[in-house]
Protein 1
Amino acid sequence: MLVDTNGMIVFKGHPANRPDLEKDFDTLLAGGTISGAGCEAVAGGDDEAAAGGQELDSTTVMSEIDAFKEVAKEL
């Protein structure tokens, strides 16, 4: 994933699919936008929709990861 300076996910995919990843970093750090495969907008068009309709914070995310680690042991 690539994230812009506003915290928005602007690319999902393998970095090898980007023709010039270094240029993408420079563009995003300068506040610009990138385009191409993997940069399509998320259905719904906002972070809340992308997060399944809920706001997320780092504490919640880390708790979910820790809970998954316990379940994963059994898999």
Protein 2
Amino acid sequence: MAFVKAERKQAKLRLALCGVSGAGKTEGALKIAKGMGARKIAVIDTERGSAALYSDIVDFDMDIITPPFTPEKYIEKIREAEQRGYDVIIIDSLSHAWAGEGGILDMHGAETDASKSKNSYYAWRTVTPKHNALVEAMLQSSSHIIASMRSKTETIDSDVNGKKVPIKIGLAPIQREGMDYEFTVVLDIDKATHVYSSSKDRTRLFENKPAKITEKTGKDLIDWLMSGISFKQIADKYIEKINNSSSIEYLKKVFIEANQESSDVKNSEEFKEVVKAKDRRKLELSVNESDIEISKAA
């Protein structure tokens, strides 16, 4: 492929909300989804249905995951929510897939114990693909994804009215190291103030702008996400190229380009139309090439 002008495309939200228990992650996620104007919101709940306590904020549907918290369960629920047309999928909480009962760490321990060598390093070869599959399910989702992650806590002494008072502060999220890199935005929420700070922000909406999560947070996010080139514009461009393909070899090149430019929206309806156009044109070209071969043989 040749170098082409870089243009920002419309995108699906990939947001992580991190904080200790009680920081306001679930409430914040629902306020953001409401502010985005979502028609249908699905909550994948691992907290014994506690998300229902916030049903006064916005209408949403909920499904509860119980132990074991395997990546496969999360993937199944994400796929189901996509198929049922939910605009926003809230995963509350993603930390259980890592450190919960039956999660990745438990799976790694079981794999290590079952091996002859008892080598924990080699056990990751079996477990890591399961974790990666969950990451891909979120990244490739046709829905907006908001995931909450619990933060590791540490107790420190703080001065309150001249007295030393122990308080809990949030540290890194309880997830595989580097998981935050997979998200477009990561907001860390302070329990005492419920004010967030951004530890990662590709939108540049929240840099050095600590605040509380409100519905406006969601509106600002959806406005930014939708301000790029639309999925339909991208799809229409490649459908035209596909329809004008004069050979199967050129068709392959065009579809590879479409795959690369649409890597984050492959489950969208627009990309499905690109695939249909490719299959249709491939059949037409195959018939034409077959006729030419028959003609040559005659």
Protein 3
Amino acid sequence: MSAQFVKETYEKMSDEELIRQLTQDAAGLTSEALQVVKDEVGRRKLSTNLINGVEAQQKSYTLEEIDTYCDLVRTLPCPITGDNNEPLNATLTSTVMSFIVFTNCRKEVIVGSPAALDKANNKALLLSLILGWWGIPWGIIRTFQAINTNLKNKKSNHLATPNNYLRSFVLSRIGEIETFKNDKQKLFEVISRK
């Protein structure tokens, strides 16, 4: 992708579209494209934190660096309950629903307080137990997998440190987290969005 094409594409975007693009989908930009980004952010007089968010998407991180970003997220209120009593973590829920010949398995990473995560895992577990096994043959197989996933993941909901699901979530949104790290409301929006 040429720098000229990137420049023309960014010039056509609204401020809101450009901010979304730069915070969510700027990994792998060339040095020429990065310069175009810097020029466009300066031309529009947007926050220079956007540049930090773009640069954050270009890096590789150590576990300690990832955990530093996780700590920013863990201090926020729970996006499910609004409570701010415990450090946040994340979990993977697995829900299976079957209808004789059709089986649907949905997996979702959720950020929240340990109690809210337990509740989400329990809900997925209950739905899978009631509605999952009806499909032949995959319903039974996927239901057992979902049960295992939800039970196993509940164990990491209460860790005193960030679990791997939170680390993965943070890495997937590193540009937004770096851009908005000093704006708790924007960070809350990042973790609340599905």
